[in-house]
Structure formats: C-alpha cells, structure tokens
Amino acid sequence: VFRSSGLITLPSILLIGPSGSGKTSLLTLFERGTKAAATHISQTPIAVECSLPVGSVANSDRYRSENDPTNQAHKKFLLVDTPGHGKLRHHALENITNPQNLKGLIFLVDAATLSAGDEGLRQTADYLHDVLLLLQKRATGSKAAKALKEIPVLIAANKMDLFTALPAALVKSSLEAEISKVRTSRSKGLLDSGIGMGDAEDEKDDWLGEMGSINFKFSQMEEFDVSVEVVGGNVAGGEGPTVDKWWKWISERL
Ligand code: GTP
Ligand code: MG
Predict the structure, then answer these.
(1) CATH code of the domain in which 215 resides
(2) Crossing angle for the helix pair 119-136 and 168-193, nearest 10 degrees?
(3) pLDDT by residue (tens digit) across 1-25?
(4) What is the total count of domains within the chain?
(5) Considering the domain boundaries, does residue 100 fall inside one?
(6) Is 5 within a domain?
(7) First CA to last CA distance, the chain
(8) Would the CB of 85 count as within 6 Å of ligand 1?
C-alpha cells in the first residue's frame, strides 16, 4: 500500500476478518462518524485517517492536562481495511508480517453466522487460526514483525442487531472450540503429508497455543504476548450503531 509520508508515522489499527463481516462498513462509519455507507466486496486494502471521537482520550495522552493543545487536536490514527475473500487474504497477512506502526488488530466477525455447524463458523475459525499462528510465529518473521512486542487483538463480534447473532461470550467459546478442531486437523494434515515426520520442532512451530492441550483457549496466546478480547457491537442495523466499546479499545491502544 502506498502511503504518503505524512501518514506513515501515524499509529495504525488493522481491520481483518472474513468477507461480509462488516469491515468496510466499520471503516466508513469510523471515518464519517454517524452512519456507515453502502459497501461492495473489497478487492484491495484501503487505509483512512480517523480521529478518536470527542471525549475519548488516547492512552498515551492520559496524563496530559485538559488544556494541553495535543489533547484538543484529537488523536489521529490510520485504520487499514483489508479484503476478507479467501483469495485476497495475503493483503491482510502482509500487514502483519510487515507492520507499519501497528498498535492493534481488530478481527471482525459476523456473530449471526457462528452457530454450530454453520459454514461461517468453520471459515471464520480457519482464518482466525491462521492470523493467530502468524502472530505467534512473528519472532521468526521480518525485522519489523520481530519488533512487535505485545499485540492486542480485538475480536469484534458484529451484527448484534440481528436476532440470530450469538452473544459475545458464546462467540468466544464457539470460536475456541472450532479453532481446536482446525488445530487438530492441520497437525494431522502435516503428518499425512510427511512434512512433520520426525521433526518435532517443525510440528511445534505450527501448533497454535499450548502444546499438548486438547482445547484451544484464547488465553493460551498470552504466552506469546498476544492478548485477545471478544466484544460485541453493531455497525449497522438496529437503532443505530453500537461501537462505543470498540472505540474504547482503540483509544487504549493509542
Ligand atoms: P469484504 O470486503 O468482502 O471482506 O467484506 P466486509 O467485511 O468489508 O463487509 P462489508 O462492510 O462490505 O459488509 C457486508 C454487509 O454486512 C453489508 O451489507 C453491510 O451493510 C452489512 N453489515 C455490516 N455491519 C452490520 C451490522 O452491524 N448489522 C447488520 N445487520 N448488517 C451489517
Ligand atoms: Mg470490505
């Protein structure tokens, strides 16, 4: 992505997640402030400059006096939207392996497609597994990726306005259970292909979270300095957007 030199120093928040979860809608809402615009399926990443809404203070500014002019100029950051389509995910993954002042990652999911047996649940878990594994393995990545010490991940459970949406606690447990399955089938796949044969180290590298555990839990990522939180909201629908808790999460990372 080309970025002008003025933007390159801004802290950035990366938006990723499966197609249709509402990433571009969220970007237009955050950029405009009141209402999300109509969107089409994204084919390329886009980065826009956003400002924290009036009243929220960035973590790095919390000790400044109220009269400090830096506080009045609202904290700006770059929000980077990526296409969720399976064939275009390299854009999102490149932003992780080659981060530009990355402060956090929002993995947006459609909470109405995560019921047991739903194809959406499998696809979402699959993508999230790969993203978390990449974060776990960042120590072996590029210099920039190595420099990322702690990575906060917000799993934003979107579309809570729909009656079929799972509440955040269930989004969390469903994803954990489904990622456990992904993890097991990936390690079997490695064994079957012979890639993992006789090389315990390789196998260990491709196993997400705690070795030897049967059930994956997001808390297992803490050992790799990746913190994961699941918070519900909605970008569109209902009686208007409910994104306050996501804004708060962002402000605490800036
Ligand atoms: P890709 O670009 O393909 O990766 O998808 P995306 O994640 O950018 O999804 P997009 O923002 O284009 O939204 C997909 C659809 O979901 C649109 O029709 C949105 O109007 C709708 N949508 C987004 N957020 C919400 C929400 O909170 N509630 C409801 N009901 N619909 C939503
Ligand atoms: Mg999009």
Answers:
(1) 3.40.50.300
(2) 70
(3) 454 555 457 899 999 999 999 999 9
(4) 1
(5) yes
(6) no
(7) 22
(8) yes
